[in-house]
Every structure is written in C-alpha cells, then in structure tokens.
Amino acid sequence: MPTKVPRRSMEDSDPIANAIAPPENESPEEREFRIQKERAAKQVSDAIDAELSREQASEKKRPKPVKILLLGQSESGKSTTLKNFQLLYEPKAFRAERASWRAIIQLNVVRSIHIIISAMNHAQNSQDRPPSARSSISSHESLRLDAELVNLKTRLLPLLEVEKDLMKRLSLPGSTEVEPTERPVAGPSSKRRQSKEIAVNSTVAWKGAFTRSNSGSSDTDLVDWDDPQDPGVILHARSEDIKRLWAHPTVQAILEKQSIRLQELAGFFLDSIDDVTSLRYVPTDDHILRARLKTLGVSEHRMRLSDPTGGMSRDFRIFDVGGTRSLRAAWVSYFDDMDAIIFLAPISAFDQVLAEEPTVNRLADSFKLWTTIVSNKLLQQTNMILFLNKVDIMHAKLASGIRLSDFVDSYGRRPNDFDSASRYLRKQFNSMLKQNSPTPRIFYCHLTNAIDTKSTRYVLAGIKDMLMRFHLQESHLIL
Ligand SMILES: Nc1nc2c(ncn2[C@@H]2O[C@H](COP(=O)(O)OP(=O)(O)OP(=O)(O)O)[C@@H](O)[C@H]2O)c(=O)[nH]1
Ligand SMILES: [Mg+2]
C-alpha cells in the first residue's frame, strides 16, 4: 500500500499557500509526476524570462520612436487620418475592429434619420401655427407632409429607440465618457436647432462593447449575429422605409429649404442604405473611414514600421486628439518632443461655422489655429505637415456655385474653380507659417481626401519615409 505523504505545514489561512500546496493524500507516483510537471513549467517560465530580458536589452538599443501629433479643429479628419495609418500599416488589427465600426455606422444612419424627422416636425409645426404667427415665417418652411410621409415618420420612430440602445452600449458601465454633444443643424442662424452627436473618450475601451471576445478569424465571426438586441435587425426591417423617406421629394425640399445638406455631414450613409442595412452587414474599409465618432480624449497608437532602405524598423507613435475648442488646452502637454505635426484644415468648410461656436467661420478658425500652432515656441523645431483636407467636398461645393469670395473677402475676383481656390488657400497657410518661423523648418503641404484610401496611402507612405530618413540623420548626428 503506498505510504501517504504528510501534508506540508502551512498557514491554513494563507490563500496563496493553500492554492499552491500539494494535494492531500498524494501518492509517491503522483508526487513524482507533479514534480516533473513543475520542473517543465519552470523551464518554460525561465525561457520566457530570458526572452523578455533579451527583448528589453534590444529595446534599449532601439532608436527613439518617431512621434506624430494630429491636430486640427473638430471634424477636420484627424481620426480618419489615424484610421488610414492603421489600415496601411496594421490592416489586420484595423479589420478586427469592424464590429465596433458597424455599430457606429448604424448610429450614424439613425442620426441622419433623426435630423430628417426633426426637420419634418419643424416644417409641420410651422404649418400648424395660426396664420398671424406664420406670417413671419418664410413660405418655404410651410411644406405640407402628406399622409404617406406622416406614415413613414411613424414607422421610423422605433429607430430612435435603436439610437438610445446603441448609446447605452457605448456608455460602458459606470462610465460617463460618452457624451452626446449638441451641434447646430445648418440653417438660418435665428432658427438654429440642435441635433445630438455622439462622442467617446478614446482612452476608454469602447470597442470592447461590440467585439466578440472569442471572435474567430473570418469577418462574419466578429459580430454576434444571434444577439436579439442587434440593431441590424430593425434597420434591415425598415430599410425600404428609410430609402423612401430619403428619396421623397418633399423631404428633399424641406431639407433644402432649411439649408440642411445631409450629404456633407460627417457620417453620411443614406446613399448606401442597401449595403448598410443588409442582414449580416460587415463594414468595408471605405465605410469605416466614413464613420463618424467624435474624439474626446487623447489617444496614443503605437506601430512598428519597416525602413524603406532595408535598415532597422522604427517604432511610430501617433497621437490623436479631440479638436473641439474646449479640448484644445490639453494639446500643449504633447508639444514637447514631437517629430512632426500633421495639421488638418478642412478647406471645404469655408461656408460653415463651428458646431461649438456658431458665430465662428470654420475656415477662419483653421487659419487662427494654424497661426497659433506654427508660432508656438515648443514647436519651432518640429516638422510641419499640412493637410488641406476634404478636397472632394471642396470640388463639389465650388462646382455647385458656392463662391469662396462670399466668405473670404480677400479672395476677391479670382476664379471660383478648385485649382485657383486651393492654390490661394495653400499660399495663405504657407505665408502664415513663414511669418511665424524665425528659423527655416521642414514644411510639406498636401491636398487630401482622407476618405479616399488610395490617394491617402501615397501621402502617408511619403511622410513615413521622410520621417524615417530625417530621424536616421538625427540619430547619426547624435552618435
Ligand atoms: N468627404 C470627406 N469626408 C471626410 C474627409 N476626411 C474626413 N472625413 C469625414 O469627416 C468626419 C470627421 O472626421 P474625423 O476624422 O472624425 O474628425 P476629427 O478631426 O477626428 O474630429 P474630432 O474627433 O471631433 O476632433 C468623418 O465622418 C470622416 O469620415 C474627406 O477628406 N472627405
Ligand atoms: Mg477625432
């Protein structure tokens, strides 16, 4: 009969000692087997420790990371530029987040419908007012909703519940990080109305709320299709209604008369409703770039990029910040030690105002912000890269007859075409930089469309190579 091994003396109250103590009544064979297992485990653990020390030692030898800070007003395209970097250099990780972006796109769709319904209500209310009160309202606001439209509106109301539900899921338990912020809907300033825009603090792991923890390797594995709360089901069921609402001539007239240009609003997906509301919809790269989620905090993204000359790879750190005015004070703590600033100025916004400050023209705000950044003492040595962004919207706006000179007096009688306008604006930004740079500094300016992956890919690859070369020269100088 095998002799029993006496239980090792230990403090019964010590949970750790309890957990690692050999089992009671262990036979000699079991003991031998356990000791062998523990020895093997220790060998593995020692090997991991050795590998970690080797990595730490080589980490110390690695050159300093290249740091890039993305700056610009809200909705200038900072987070979209970061998404482009991720898509280009970490496509697997980027695509693994599709389930989270699917939820944001659904939220964007519902928000557009919310804006349309508010505009319809506004038109209806002005119609319902007594004629004496109506006399001060311009005739265009009194467009009548026919029975079909009223019906459509009623059928689409459940989507507002979807919005609430998605927002609840985005607000992680115990967190107040999700902040539905007010933004004015374009329209005559005296009759400005508000529509909510969702924002998330980028330091919060909001993406976890939508990604399956045990997700498989294929795209469709990323979404929990059996989730009864999935907003995709309701959106799919209402897809035809959404299309009819959006295509309805009275709706188009109401939006036009209230100066609401939904196509130009961030997160516009109403022209892709068939795709976005299809059952088992998984966003394409293009859709992820178009998705709008306002940034509140500052987020840091790390990636290791290869050297085009075949040398050692470099660590890049890209910092994305929130661009709303109240968040800009936080930028300065990141100014120290940056290798480059990518400043985004959405030139198409020349006829728009800031959401947070409806008296301030957005192009004027970009000019002022650029001047503040280039004249900052901490940034005198920093490479400046300017993206004159949203050129696609700029093209369309100018072509539709909206005149730059109506908003920028100094543009004078120059032609209202894209080439002349972009050349003029580039010159303005350039001269602001020169006036505020006591010593010459590296400056690049690109006309960009950040939702176009192809053109952005070339711009970003060029920036990466330039910064690697520059960084390499600097390290040689230091050595
Ligand atoms: N059409 C068009 N849309 C763009 C372009 N660049 C960005 N967008 C869209 O504009 C919206 C705003 O872009 P974001 O990248 O979220 O803006 P941001 O600068 O990060 O804004 P904050 O986080 O509020 O500071 C998103 O829906 C983008 O898809 C562009 O060049 N053209
Ligand atoms: Mg952002």
TrEMBL record:
<keyword id="KW-0460">Magnesium</keyword>
<feature type="region of interest" description="Disordered">
    <location>
        <begin position="1"/>
        <end position="60"/>
    </location>
</feature>
<dbReference type="GO" id="GO:0005525">
    <property type="term" value="F:GTP binding"/>
</dbReference>
<feature type="binding site">
    <location>
        <begin position="289"/>
        <end position="295"/>
    </location>
    <ligand>
        <name>GTP</name>
    </ligand>
</feature>
<feature type="binding site">
    <location>
        <position position="295"/>
    </location>
    <ligand>
        <name>Mg(2+)</name>
    </ligand>
</feature>
<dbReference type="GO" id="GO:0001664">
    <property type="term" value="F:G protein-coupled receptor binding"/>
</dbReference>
<protein>
    <submittedName>
        <fullName>Guanine nucleotide binding protein, alpha subunit</fullName>
    </submittedName>
</protein>
<keyword id="KW-0807">Transducer</keyword>
<dbReference type="InterPro" id="IPR011025">
    <property type="entry name" value="GproteinA_insert"/>
</dbReference>
<dbReference type="Pfam" id="PF00503">
    <property type="entry name" value="G-alpha"/>
</dbReference>
<feature type="binding site">
    <location>
        <position position="450"/>
    </location>
    <ligand>
        <name>GTP</name>
    </ligand>
</feature>
<dbReference type="GO" id="GO:0005834">
    <property type="term" value="C:heterotrimeric G-protein complex"/>
</dbReference>
<feature type="compositionally biased region" description="Basic and acidic residues">
    <location>
        <begin position="28"/>
        <end position="41"/>
    </location>
</feature>
<feature type="binding site">
    <location>
        <begin position="389"/>
        <end position="392"/>
    </location>
    <ligand>
        <name>GTP</name>
    </ligand>
</feature>
<keyword id="KW-0547">Nucleotide-binding</keyword>
<dbReference type="GO" id="GO:0005737">
    <property type="term" value="C:cytoplasm"/>
</dbReference>
<keyword id="KW-0479">Metal-binding</keyword>
<feature type="compositionally biased region" description="Basic and acidic residues">
    <location>
        <begin position="51"/>
        <end position="60"/>
    </location>
</feature>
<dbReference type="InterPro" id="IPR001019">
    <property type="entry name" value="Gprotein_alpha_su"/>
</dbReference>
<dbReference type="InterPro" id="IPR027417">
    <property type="entry name" value="P-loop_NTPase"/>
</dbReference>
<dbReference type="GO" id="GO:0031683">
    <property type="term" value="F:G-protein beta/gamma-subunit complex binding"/>
</dbReference>
<dbReference type="GO" id="GO:0007188">
    <property type="term" value="P:adenylate cyclase-modulating G protein-coupled receptor signaling pathway"/>
</dbReference>
<feature type="region of interest" description="Disordered">
    <location>
        <begin position="173"/>
        <end position="196"/>
    </location>
</feature>
<dbReference type="GO" id="GO:0003924">
    <property type="term" value="F:GTPase activity"/>
</dbReference>
<keyword id="KW-0342">GTP-binding</keyword>
<dbReference type="GO" id="GO:0046872">
    <property type="term" value="F:metal ion binding"/>
</dbReference>
